Amino acid sequence: MRFRQLALSLGWSLLFWISFAVMLAGEDRVRLAQRNIHTGYWTLVLVDSAWCVTFALLTPPIFYIVEKYPVTKQTRLRRTTAYLLGTIPFMLVFACMRWLILPPWNSVLQQFVPRSFHNLVSITYGFADQTWTYLATVITAHAFTYHSRARKEETERLEAQQALATSELQALKSQIHPHFLFNTLQGISTLVDSDGNKAKRMIVMLSNLLRTALQHGQTDLIPLHEELIFIEDYLAIEKVRLEDRLEVRWDVPTATRTLLVPQLILQPLVENAIVHGIACCREGGWIHIIARKKEHCLEIQIINSMCGEQPGGMGVGMQNIRSRLKHLYADEAEFAFKNEDNQLATATLTLPRFESPQASPDLGELEHASVPEESYERPDRR
Fold first, then answer.
1. What number of CA atoms fall less than 13 Å from residue 143's CA on the CB side?
2. Exposure winner among 24, 81, 135, 319, fewest CB in 10 A?
């Protein structure tokens, strides 16, 4: 991996400097022609390429040194001085490399001449170009290093935020299971002594309910029709306990069922409707589950009857919903709850429209159906 990075850096450096040699040769040809020295263009490209290849070979080491020893607030004076003094060793190394790559070109004789100590020293006569090229490379390397580090730090920050958000979301999801499990077990305990058969039925239903929840334990978003399966199982348990006191009405068109919703997002809403709106009423009540596919969103409403003011409130489940929506959708989702004169409660979820890749179950519309289960088709469990 390190060799590949080195080869890539050297390749980009050679490409940049050799392309510069092509332009430099044209400039030199015009300049020499003004002195009545006529040198072939490609000969000048070869001569200038020797200079540019030398710069190209020295550029990656400069970038490496700057990346390892950048000028920072703590080392500003010391390292700035070191890089300025680095001009001298750079010029010496540059002269040696240029001298080895190609023999010197004599523009008067129009030929390459043998290498000698004199023409080795004469390479340093271009110290101004070499110095400014070195300093420009050092400055460019610092700019590249600062940009790369800033981008890396930003990436690490975003990854850390994402990891934190994921862990918080998992923590929120983990709160849901014991919450409804405790309430359901409490309902079962009340039937153990009075009606053992009903208690057994509720235990079997609860096991099915937990199995459904565990199928998507690590999934944040699931199709609406799978969420409806879970809600139906939950309502079936409540129906055993409340019997005819619980009436459920559905208005969930087929077109909405493939849209993605957060897992277990409806259960706290349905539970809140039953606990605070129906179970506490002697004559019972009804709950209406509605889904609407709008232009840019999916709107889900849980509407339930009430029989006057009841103790309790939105509870942990409702706060959990707001937190999960914030983590999953930022500001693109909304949750609203409205109590109309303690006679009607409406919880409304407005979610961004995300289509599931799964095909929607081929079902009839679940519209205005009511429990018992035989009065409407259940979503396909396959």
1. 6
2. 81
Summarised one tens digit per residue, pLDDT across range 78-89 is 999 999 999 999
Closest CA to 231 of 180, 197, 188, 191: 180
Q: Name which of 146, 123, 125, 136 is nearest 67 in CA terms.
A: 146
Residues in contact with 331: Cβ distance below 8 Å, sequence separation at least 6, in sequence order: none
- Check if the beta carbon of residue 298 is closer than 8 Å to that of residue 351: yes
- 59: Cα separation from own chain's centroid: 35
Last residue of a domain, one of 158, 185, 212: 158
Q: Are residues 209 and 69 in the same domain?
A: no
Query: DSSP assignment of 227-250, as one string?
Result: HHHHHHHHHHHHHHHHGGGEEEEE
Average pLDDT over residues 186-191: 74
> How wide is the angle at C-alpha 237 spanned by C-alphas 235 and 240, nearest 5°?
110
For the cut 70, the answer to whether the pLDDT of residue 104 exceeds it is yes
**What is the pLDDT, as a whole number, of residue 347?**
93
Domain shared by 215 and 361, yes or no = yes
Kind plus residue range of the DSSP H or E element containing 54 = helix 41-68
Model confidence at 208, pLDDT cuts 50, 70, 90, reads confident
Tens of pLDDT along 259-290? Answer: 999 888 888 888 888 888 888 888 889 999 99
209 and 96 in a common domain: no
User: What is the residue range of 68's domain?
Assistant: 2-158
CA neighbor of 333 nearest in space, from 275, 269, 267, 262: 262
258: in domain: yes
Residue 21 lies in a domain: yes
